[in-house]
Structures are given as structure tokens and as C-alpha cells.
Design brief:
This protein is mostly helical and 394 residues long. It has a domain at 314-393: Alpha Horseshoe (Serine Threonine Protein Phosphatase 5, Tetratricopeptide repeat). It is 76% helix and 0% strand. The protein has helices spanning 2-22, 31-55, 60-86, 89-122, 132-137, 145-158, 163-175, 179-193, 197-210, 217-229, 234-246, 250-262, 271-280, 301-308, 312-332, 337-350, 353-366, 371-393. 22% of the residues are buried.
Amino acid sequence: MISLSLFAAFALMTAIAAFAVLWPLSRTRAAQAAREADLAVYRDQLAEIARDAKSGRLPKAEAEAARIEVARRMLAADSARETASTEDPARITRQTTWRRRMAAVFALLFVPVFAVGLYGMLGSPRLPGAPLAERLTAAPDRGDVAILVRRVEEHLQKTPNDGAGYEILAPVYLRMGRPEDAARAYAEAIRILGPSALRHSSRGEALVIASDGLVTADAARAFADALALDPNEPRSAYFLGLAAEQDGRAADAARIWGQLLARTPADAPYRPVVAAALARVGGAAPAAPAAGVPGQPGPGAADVAAAAALSSDERNAMVRGMVDRLAQRLDSAPDDIEGWLRLVRAYGVLGDKDKAAEALKKARATFKDNAEALGRLDAAEKELAAKTGAGEKG
């Protein structure tokens, strides 16, 4: 019944479209009147040319050429009128009627038949319909992650206090490239199931990914909460060290990463990442614990392999890329004083004094009516000047 109604609707729309095209063809045109109108236009043109030539707006030679061209067109139109008058009107009517009928047959029959035949060859007419509601209730394919996620989301709408559902959904969001949704899911899991070092750390990592690698204040608080529950949680320690580096506190970053490296087993897969980070801020690597000592979960193996394979220049380029993304974000959303302070410090770490000064200028223009923000910017400028002066003396 549904398919029959759909077919009838398509047939009706096709008929309406064909009728819209054929309707102008069914209207008779008065050829004689049209030719008379053309001749009237040509007469007006001759009169206008005569007026322009008399007033001097049109040179004599150009006026004569224009008169000749209009006269030629008048003769051609008059000749066509005489030819039409000698033809058999009944024969002309029959020819016109035949052409219109052929056009109607083509539009109403050939086009739909051709479309149906083409669909039968290239389409899948035997494939049953798959509305969204039926796909959600049917058993999904193993690779149809979007359907599975949609089902879990619908389940959580009905039972919003299912913490296990949020905890299952959060890492899936992360793999799907939806870090903001992952962070919200981890927050719901913490609210319902209670805090844990792993949940806080996972939420912080999702926030870092959502901010293009920058450790925001919210992410730093999540990592601090994780370490308060488990002081040996390695992922949180690593990202807090990264936050210190991004803030321009290289000594703090070296201390955090040095302590983390000291308790990281020699065979831990994330040890190369921590060692590379410590070397980047000029810290000395401590001796590694014995191999085989149980370690805490850290960054994924793919992240470790990618970071370990980077050269020093590539790592610097990666850091500059993160700083550039922060600058772009602040251009579109400038009301973020923490972001501006982080950008200024990052430029200071990279040695880009001109960019740091430009960032300070933009930030001051944004917060010109905010005394507290201007004071923090002044302090950041003094800190930058002090570090720059110390570096030049050294």
C-alpha cells in the first residue's frame, strides 16, 4: 500500500512537470501579429536614427549604415510575411499540431519509461526500504558503529542515570573524532559512578584533544583530580607537565616529567614519550626502574610510536602547530584571557618576541575595559621581558 501510494505520488509529480513544459506549446501564436510588431519596431528605429542624425548625436556615415541595416531587416520581415500568406494555413496548423503531440508523447511516455528501465538496470528495485526507525531496531552490522552509538544514546535518554552506558560510550566518541562528546560522557560517568583516577584522566585527555593539543584549565583540573586519587597515574602527570611547558614553566615541566620518568618501568611503552618531553625542556633523564615492574596505563601505543619517531625539528613543528591553532582560535573567539596568556607564554618559549608582542597588543585591545585582565597581561609582559633578558645575557 505504501509503495503504491509512493508510485502514484511520483507519477503525479511527473505529470505535473510534463504539463508545465507542454502548456506553452498548446498556446497558438499569432504569427501575423508578431511580424507586424517587428515591423513597427523597425519603423521606430528608423525614426530614432533620423532624430539622432538631425541633432548631431550620430555621425552622418554611421546614421546611413544604421538606416541600411534596419531597412534590410524590414525587407526580410516583410518577405517572410508574404511567404507565410501564400502558404496553406491548414497545412501549417496540421504540422504544428503533429509536433505538439510528438512532444507530449515524448514527455509523458518516453521519459518515464526510460527512467524506469535505467533504474531496473543500474538500481536495486528488489532491495527493501530501510527507514531509520527500522535500521535502529534491526540487528546492525559489526561495522555500523553509528547505529550502535545511536542506540546507546537513545537508551541513555530513557535512563539518564546509567553510568556504565556513559563509560562505554565515551571512548567510542573519542575514536569517532567527537572529543567534546567524549568529555561530557566521562563527566556523566563521574557524576553517576563516582570519581576515579582513570575517569578523570580520560576526561582530561578528551579535553586536550578537543582543544587541539592544548592543556586547558578544565583539563588541568581533571588531571589534578586524577593524581589526587592516584599519585602514580602516569597520563595525568604527563599532561600536567605539558601544561607547565605550554605555560612557559620549563623548570616545573622538567620536574614533573623527571619524577614521572623515575617511576616509569624501562619496558613501559610510553617511556620514550616522557623521555623526549623531558629532553625538550632540558631536563636530565633519571635512571630507569627495573624492567618488568608493573606500570600504569599511559598514552596509546600508536601515540607513543608516532611521538618517538619524531625528530627534534618535527617536535618543534608540532608545538608550533599547536600554538598557531591557539592563535587562530583566539582570533575567532578573543574573549579568553587564559588563552591569550597561554599564547604569550608559548611565544616566549619559542623565542618569537614579535609575535608575543602582537598577541599582547590584540589581547589588550580585546580587554581594554577589564582592569583585572589588563593587569594579568602586564604581568605576563614583565615575565616575558625578564626571561628574554636572562636568555640574552646567558
